[in-house]
Amino acid sequence: MKKKFSISKKYLLNHYFIKNKSAQDIANILGCSCSTIYKAFSDYNIVSKSMRYYKHKFCGKLSSKYKDGRCLKKYYCKKCKTNKICYENYLYGSKLCKKCRGKIHSKLMKGKRNPNWTGGLNKNKYGNGFNNTLKNSIRNRDNSECQCCGLKQIIHIKKYTTKLDVHHIDYDKQNSAKTNLISLCKQCHIDSNFNRDYWYAFYTYLMEGKNG
Protein backbone atom coordinates (compact mmCIF):
# COMPACT_ATOMS: atom_id res chain seq x y z
CA MET A 1 0.00 0.00 0.00
CA LYS A 2 1.30 3.42 -0.99
CA LYS A 3 2.40 5.55 1.97
CA LYS A 4 0.77 8.98 2.33
CA PHE A 5 2.86 11.92 3.49
CA SER A 6 1.56 14.92 5.38
CA ILE A 7 4.18 17.66 4.97
CA SER A 8 3.60 21.04 6.60
CA LYS A 9 4.45 24.29 4.89
CA LYS A 10 6.55 25.35 7.88
CA TYR A 11 8.65 22.18 7.62
CA LEU A 12 9.30 22.75 3.93
CA LEU A 13 10.23 26.41 4.34
CA ASN A 14 12.55 25.60 7.24
CA HIS A 15 14.43 22.81 5.47
CA TYR A 16 14.37 24.26 1.95
CA PHE A 17 15.34 27.88 2.60
CA ILE A 18 16.78 28.13 6.16
CA LYS A 19 18.68 24.80 6.24
CA ASN A 20 19.30 25.11 2.48
CA LYS A 21 18.28 21.54 1.74
CA SER A 22 17.41 20.53 -1.80
CA ALA A 23 14.09 18.94 -2.75
CA GLN A 24 15.91 15.64 -3.18
CA ASP A 25 17.48 15.95 0.30
CA ILE A 26 14.08 16.52 1.89
CA ALA A 27 12.67 13.57 -0.06
CA ASN A 28 15.49 11.33 1.24
CA ILE A 29 14.88 12.46 4.84
CA LEU A 30 11.15 11.74 4.60
CA GLY A 31 11.59 8.61 2.51
CA CYS A 32 9.40 9.79 -0.36
CA SER A 33 9.93 10.71 -4.00
CA CYS A 34 11.16 14.09 -5.17
CA SER A 35 7.92 14.60 -7.11
CA THR A 36 6.01 14.42 -3.81
CA ILE A 37 8.07 17.35 -2.50
CA TYR A 38 7.50 19.40 -5.66
CA LYS A 39 3.78 18.67 -5.44
CA ALA A 40 3.82 20.00 -1.88
CA PHE A 41 5.61 23.12 -3.19
CA SER A 42 2.80 23.57 -5.69
CA ASP A 43 0.07 23.02 -3.07
CA TYR A 44 1.62 25.63 -0.76
CA ASN A 45 2.53 28.04 -3.63
CA ILE A 46 6.23 27.81 -2.74
CA VAL A 47 8.46 29.02 -5.58
CA SER A 48 11.52 26.81 -6.07
CA LYS A 49 15.03 28.25 -5.76
CA SER A 50 15.76 27.72 -9.44
CA MET A 51 12.64 29.66 -10.42
CA ARG A 52 13.48 32.48 -8.02
CA TYR A 53 16.99 32.62 -9.45
CA TYR A 54 15.59 32.72 -12.98
CA LYS A 55 13.17 35.52 -12.13
CA HIS A 56 15.88 37.64 -10.52
CA LYS A 57 18.61 36.98 -13.09
CA PHE A 58 16.89 36.58 -16.44
CA CYS A 59 13.61 38.50 -16.39
CA GLY A 60 12.98 42.07 -17.52
CA LYS A 61 16.02 44.09 -18.59
CA LEU A 62 18.37 41.24 -17.66
CA SER A 63 16.83 38.95 -20.26
CA SER A 64 18.70 38.53 -23.56
CA LYS A 65 15.38 38.99 -25.39
CA TYR A 66 14.47 42.23 -23.64
CA LYS A 67 13.64 45.02 -26.09
CA ASP A 68 11.93 48.04 -24.62
CA GLY A 69 9.43 46.76 -22.08
CA ARG A 70 6.74 46.73 -24.74
CA CYS A 71 4.83 43.90 -23.03
CA LEU A 72 4.54 46.00 -19.86
CA LYS A 73 3.14 49.03 -21.67
CA LYS A 74 -0.55 49.61 -22.26
CA TYR A 75 -1.68 50.07 -25.85
CA TYR A 76 -5.04 51.52 -26.90
CA CYS A 77 -7.08 51.47 -30.08
CA LYS A 78 -6.10 54.42 -32.28
CA LYS A 79 -9.75 55.08 -33.20
CA CYS A 80 -11.74 54.90 -29.94
CA LYS A 81 -8.67 55.38 -27.69
CA THR A 82 -10.39 53.50 -24.85
CA ASN A 83 -10.20 49.76 -25.60
CA LYS A 84 -6.87 48.03 -24.95
CA ILE A 85 -5.07 46.09 -27.68
CA CYS A 86 -2.03 43.76 -27.58
CA TYR A 87 1.38 45.10 -28.48
CA GLU A 88 1.62 42.83 -31.57
CA ASN A 89 -1.50 44.51 -32.94
CA TYR A 90 -0.08 47.93 -32.10
CA LEU A 91 3.28 47.27 -33.74
CA TYR A 92 2.34 45.09 -36.70
CA GLY A 93 -1.46 45.09 -37.01
CA SER A 94 -4.27 47.54 -37.66
CA LYS A 95 -3.90 49.25 -34.25
CA LEU A 96 -7.68 48.87 -33.87
CA CYS A 97 -9.72 47.05 -31.23
CA LYS A 98 -12.14 44.28 -32.19
CA LYS A 99 -15.17 46.57 -31.89
CA CYS A 100 -13.76 49.26 -34.19
CA ARG A 101 -12.57 46.69 -36.73
CA GLY A 102 -16.08 45.26 -36.78
CA LYS A 103 -17.64 48.67 -37.47
CA ILE A 104 -15.24 49.33 -40.35
CA HIS A 105 -15.87 45.85 -41.77
CA SER A 106 -19.64 46.42 -41.62
CA LYS A 107 -19.29 49.64 -43.64
CA LEU A 108 -17.07 47.97 -46.21
CA MET A 109 -19.55 45.10 -46.63
CA LYS A 110 -22.62 47.31 -46.91
CA GLY A 111 -24.77 47.54 -50.01
CA LYS A 112 -23.39 46.52 -53.40
CA ARG A 113 -20.03 45.61 -51.90
CA ASN A 114 -21.62 42.70 -50.02
CA PRO A 115 -21.42 39.36 -51.90
CA ASN A 116 -25.04 38.65 -50.83
CA TRP A 117 -26.33 41.88 -52.41
CA THR A 118 -29.70 41.26 -54.11
CA GLY A 119 -30.29 44.61 -55.74
CA GLY A 120 -31.79 46.36 -52.72
CA LEU A 121 -34.73 44.00 -52.29
CA ASN A 122 -34.40 44.08 -48.51
CA LYS A 123 -35.25 47.79 -48.52
CA ASN A 124 -38.75 47.11 -49.86
CA LYS A 125 -41.49 47.77 -47.31
CA TYR A 126 -43.87 45.09 -46.08
CA GLY A 127 -47.45 45.10 -47.27
CA ASN A 128 -50.18 46.60 -45.06
CA GLY A 129 -51.62 43.19 -44.27
CA PHE A 130 -48.37 41.92 -42.74
CA ASN A 131 -49.14 42.71 -39.10
CA ASN A 132 -48.91 41.02 -35.70
CA THR A 133 -52.34 39.43 -36.07
CA LEU A 134 -51.34 37.72 -39.32
CA LYS A 135 -47.95 36.67 -37.93
CA ASN A 136 -49.52 35.16 -34.82
CA SER A 137 -52.00 33.20 -36.96
CA ILE A 138 -49.07 31.78 -39.00
CA ARG A 139 -47.23 30.78 -35.83
CA ASN A 140 -50.36 29.06 -34.49
CA ARG A 141 -50.88 27.26 -37.80
CA ASP A 142 -47.27 25.99 -37.61
CA ASN A 143 -47.78 24.75 -34.02
CA SER A 144 -45.49 27.48 -32.68
CA GLU A 145 -42.31 25.83 -33.92
CA CYS A 146 -39.69 26.48 -36.58
CA GLN A 147 -40.67 24.59 -39.74
CA CYS A 148 -37.03 23.98 -40.61
CA CYS A 149 -35.27 22.84 -37.41
CA GLY A 150 -38.29 22.28 -35.14
CA LEU A 151 -37.29 24.78 -32.42
CA LYS A 152 -40.26 25.51 -30.13
CA GLN A 153 -41.35 29.12 -29.69
CA ILE A 154 -41.04 28.87 -25.88
CA ILE A 155 -37.34 27.98 -26.23
CA HIS A 156 -36.91 30.61 -28.97
CA ILE A 157 -38.18 33.34 -26.64
CA LYS A 158 -35.72 32.26 -23.93
CA LYS A 159 -32.85 32.17 -26.42
CA TYR A 160 -33.57 35.26 -28.55
CA THR A 161 -36.16 37.13 -26.38
CA THR A 162 -38.53 37.27 -29.40
CA LYS A 163 -41.21 35.10 -30.95
CA LEU A 164 -40.55 33.02 -34.07
CA ASP A 165 -39.91 34.97 -37.28
CA VAL A 166 -42.41 34.81 -40.13
CA HIS A 167 -40.62 34.38 -43.45
CA HIS A 168 -41.83 35.31 -46.97
CA ILE A 169 -41.09 32.19 -49.01
CA ASP A 170 -40.78 33.99 -52.37
CA TYR A 171 -38.90 36.93 -50.74
CA ASP A 172 -41.61 39.34 -51.94
CA LYS A 173 -42.54 41.45 -48.91
CA GLN A 174 -45.73 42.59 -50.58
CA ASN A 175 -47.01 39.03 -50.96
CA SER A 176 -48.50 38.29 -47.54
CA ALA A 177 -50.68 35.36 -48.59
CA LYS A 178 -50.73 32.67 -45.91
CA THR A 179 -49.40 30.12 -48.39
CA ASN A 180 -46.35 32.37 -48.85
CA LEU A 181 -45.60 32.69 -45.12
CA ILE A 182 -43.83 30.21 -42.86
CA SER A 183 -42.58 30.24 -39.24
CA LEU A 184 -38.81 30.11 -38.79
CA CYS A 185 -36.41 30.56 -35.90
CA LYS A 186 -33.91 33.41 -35.99
CA GLN A 187 -31.00 31.26 -37.22
CA CYS A 188 -32.99 29.49 -39.96
CA HIS A 189 -34.35 32.84 -41.11
CA ILE A 190 -30.80 34.15 -41.44
CA ASP A 191 -29.78 31.01 -43.35
CA SER A 192 -32.66 31.53 -45.79
CA ASN A 193 -30.94 34.68 -47.12
CA PHE A 194 -28.12 32.54 -48.52
CA ASN A 195 -28.71 30.33 -51.57
CA ARG A 196 -32.22 31.71 -51.97
CA ASP A 197 -33.21 29.45 -54.89
CA TYR A 198 -32.69 26.38 -52.72
CA TRP A 199 -34.67 27.71 -49.75
CA TYR A 200 -37.48 28.97 -52.02
CA ALA A 201 -37.87 25.47 -53.48
CA PHE A 202 -37.54 23.80 -50.05
CA TYR A 203 -40.16 25.92 -48.26
CA THR A 204 -42.49 25.82 -51.25
CA TYR A 205 -42.34 22.02 -51.05
CA LEU A 206 -43.11 22.15 -47.30
CA MET A 207 -46.13 24.37 -47.86
CA GLU A 208 -47.45 22.12 -50.63
CA GLY A 209 -47.35 19.25 -48.13
CA LYS A 210 -49.28 21.34 -45.57
CA ASN A 211 -51.90 22.49 -48.05
CA GLY A 212 -52.17 19.06 -49.68
What can you tell me about this protein's structure?
The structure is a single chain. By secondary structure, the chain is mainly α. It has 3 domains: 9-59; 75-112, no CATH class; 130-211, no CATH class. The protein contains 10 helices and 4 strands, in the order ααααββααααββαα. It has helices at 9-18, 23-30, 34-43, 49-58, 87-92, 98-108, 132-141, 153-160, 186-191, 196-211, and strands spanning 75-76, 84-85, 165-168, 181-184. A two-stranded antiparallel ribbon has the order 1-2. A two-stranded antiparallel sheet has the order 3-4. The longest helix has 16 residues, at 196-211. The protein starts with 8 loop residues before the first helix and ends with a helix. The mean pLDDT is 83.
Count of domain modules: 3
Helix content: 40-55%
Largest sheet: 2 strands, antiparallel
Following the backbone from N to C, one meets helices and strands in this order, namely HHHHEEHHHHEEHH
Please report which band the strand proportion falls in: under 5%, 5-15%, 15-25%, 25-35%, 35-45% or over 45%. Answer: 5-15%
* Mean of pLDDT: 83
Kindly provide the radius of gyration, computed on alpha-carbon positions and rounded to a whole number of angstroms.
Answer: 33 Å
Number of beta strands = 4
Q: With helices defined by DSSP (H or I, 4 residues minimum), what is the helix count?
A: 10
Low-confidence stretches: none
* Straight-line distance between termini: 75 Å
Class computed from helices, strands and strand pairing: mainly alpha
Order of strands across the biggest sheet?
A: 1-2
Please tell me what the overall shape is.
elongated
